[in-house]
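Notebook entry, structure prediction.
Reason for the run: the old model in the group folder had no record of what sequence produced it. Starting over properly, with the input documented here first.
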Amino acid sequence: MKISIPAWRSLKVLQRNLDVWRAHWLSSIIANLGEPILYLFVLGVGLGRLVPEVNGMSYLYFLAPGIMVAAAMNSASYECTFGSYTRMMTQKSYEAILMTPISVEEIVIGDVLYGALKGLFSATALAALLVLIDVIDLTPALLSIPLLFLTGFLFACLSMIVTALSPSYEFFSYYFTLFITPMFLLSGVFFPIDSLPPWIQRVSLCFPLTHSVQIARSLIYEVTWMPHLGSLLWLLVMTSFSLFIAIRLCHRRLIR
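New structure, fully documented this time:
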């Protein structure tokens, strides 16, 4: 299979998904923002009153960057698993699109872009709220936008790989229970990873979310990402590899 450079037709797939999203945008906003806001305020404000400073800052301040990137991860992951599987297998939208000049590669890239944008929307909406309540400043919040998009894009690619392999909706339980949830809990979102046993720290460093969280905290509170250049390179390499695998697997499933 030859994988060509993504053409502008990927944007047509993205536009198609955005047009559908406009029909149910309100319920989508509630689903994408409700959970991270609850985590932020229940843990950051409620539990934060009982927790002493973490790394020299209040628990709410420590928690905020991690919840932002986790929001990008979760929104992109749900969209490119349940949403993409519905378009691929239930609605047969992919098969209909393939009747046009649009290729499998362009469908996958368009769907991944859509997942990444939904992740970016959730994370930036949460960042805007954090700016309004004076937890983070406006400038670092704006500087974090490329990282939030990259995080969403990476997890959209990983989720498309799972979707291409999934025989049913129930299969996604393995992905979220065995991969997304442990990563969410052990990537430094809720507590510093150096408080974990050494072997778990090594596992945590394999998680892409760990690197996103580290970069986000540095960007937001130190206004720099340079100390985590290695983490950024790891995210970029993993994103490129995941996109390639997602395209290959979707091509295998759709072109028989």
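Summary: The chain has one domain: 9-254.
The old model has been moved to the deprecated folder.
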